[in-house]
Write a structure and sequence with these properties.
Layout: E1 14-16, E2 30-32, H1 38-48, E3 51-55, H2 61-76, H3 79-83, E4 92-98, E5 103-113, H4 117-127, H5 131-159, H6 169-173, E6 180-186, E7 197-206, E8 212-217, E9 223-226, E10 236-241, E11 244-249, E12 252-255, E13 258-263, H7 265-270, E14 280-283, E15 290-297, E16 304-305, E17 323-324, H8 325-332
Parallel strand pairs: 2-3
Antiparallel strand pairs: 1-7, 1-10, 3-13, 4-5, 5-6, 6-15, 7-14, 8-13, 8-15, 9-12, 9-14, 10-11, 16-17
Helix pairs in contact: 1-5, 2-5, 4-5
The structure holds the ligand C=C1C[C@]23C[C@@]1(O)CC[C@H]2[C@@]12CC[C@H](O)[C@@](C)(C(=O)O1)[C@H]2[C@@H]3C(=O)O, 2-oxoglutaric acid and fe (ii) ion.
């Protein structure tokens, strides 16, 4: 059981109750990786949704359970202990503050670079265990998820008829791949009567910068994904951000658990905008706490990113300037969560 820390609710973004239908439908694309037609279905899901649920993958349940139980132990530790593994700069333990630009949410997390030893020591010292055992638990899980991610990316390239089919996967397989692993814990959140609201924002709306994100969560709802086809749907979600009020038109799909793949900003560039990165956010749950584990597969820092020539049709011109992942990441990590990070790299956009 996760022991709750009670972050104070001052200044946290909240969602107004008056919106009746931030859509609850569960008809999301499901990809069975063992099926031969999965390559075409992956392309279709990426084009139409930007995400899908994965079944019949080879990520062993024992790796998932082991890491989830270490995470539960970590987040159940006294706040004073957890703070010793922080602040998140960006790696380490973070509480309510997301990134370095003032975003906040009802969340605590641990962010690890998959190739930095120091991180594991911080994590392990809170649990009072040998860093080796934590490193092994993270490595087992991350290696299995990375293998699955490469399989998905190769099927994606095959479905797109790109040769060689390792154009995306080689970036993750590279020993210098700049990948990140994240554990998020959203403590159960009581109703906040004085605002007449039910949900606090756990993790504000954003797209993920890397190539792909693979998300696994416990059986607590909270993740919401903005449906591409529903942008402009007339449902008003009123978000109160500090003292300002923002009204947005949006329609979200609410997603509960298991393993989910999300298409990200770098894939949007490499496909010259054909696959859009998907906007998502997390709302807190009033009854249960939520735990999620996300692998963000990124390219090596020196990798040059540009639209793949094999995907450009006829006279189609590149929408983006070429940049290295280092340049992109440097700019992305200065941005606010909800910002469009690609604008700066568009050929015809503001620069
Ligand atoms: C506000 C921010 C947090 C973030 C870096 C950023 O400046 C903008 C992108 C955010 C994000 C979203 C996906 C991942 O959770 C993350 C680790 C990433 O690579 O980009 C976070 C960053 C973070 O939490 O530091
Ligand atoms: O915790 C989740 O379910 C999603 C979090 C997320 O989107 C992120 O960490 O980038
Ligand atoms: Fe995300």
């Amino acid at each position: 059981m996760v022991v709750l820390t009670e972050p104070d609710t001052d200044h946290l973004p909240i969602i107004n109750n008056s919106c009746k239908s931030p859509s609850f439908f569960n008809d999301i694309p499901v990809i069975d990786l063992s099926k031969p037609d999965s390559k075409n279905l992956i392309v279709k899901a990426c084009e139409e949704f930007g995400f899908f649920k994965v079944v019949n993958h080879d990520v062993p349940m024992e790796f998932i359970s082991k890491l989830e139980s270490e995470a539960i132990k970590f987040f159940s530790s006294p706040l004073s202990e957890k703070l010793k593994a922080g602040p998140a700069d960006p790696f380490g333990y973070g509480n309510k503050q997301i990134g370095q630009s003032g975003d906040i949410g009802w969340v605590e997390y641990i962010l690890l670079s998959t190739n930095c030893e120091f991180n594991y020591q911080k994590f392990a010292s809170v649990l009072g265990v040998n860093p080796e055992s934590i490193r092994a638990a993270v490595n087992d899980y991350v290696s299995a998820v990375k293998k699955m991610s490469c399989e998905i990316l190769e099927k994606l390239a095959e479905g797109l008829k790109i040769h060689p089919t390792n154009v995306f996967s080689k970036l993750l397989k590279d020993e210098k791949s700049d990948s990140v692993f994240r554990l998020n814990h959203y403590p159960q959140c009581p109703d906040i009567q004085e605002f007449n609201v039910k949900n606090l924002i756990g993790f504000g709306e954003h797209t993920d910068p890397q190539i792909i994100s693979v998300l696994r969560s416990n059986n607590t709802s909270g993740l919401q994904i903005l449906l591409k086809m529903a942008i402009g749907f007339p449902c008003h979600l009123i978000r109160i951000h500090f003292s300002s009020m923002l009204a947005t038109r949006c329609r979200y799909i609410t997603y509960t658990h298991q393993i989910l793949y999300l298409s990200n900003e770098i894939v949007e560039v490499m496909t010259n905008g054909r696959f859009k990165s998907v906007k998502h956010r997390v709302l807190t749950n009033t009854l249960k706490s939520r735990l999620s584990m996300i692998y963000f597969g990124g390219p090596p820092l020196s990798e040059k990113i540009a639209p793949l020539p094999s995907l450009m049709e006829g006279e189609e011109s590149s929408l983006y300037k070429e940049f290295t992942w280092f340049e992109y990441k440097k700019s992305a990590f200065k941005s606010r969560l909800a910002e469009n990070r690609l604008t700066l790299f568009e050929k015809f956009g503001a620069s």
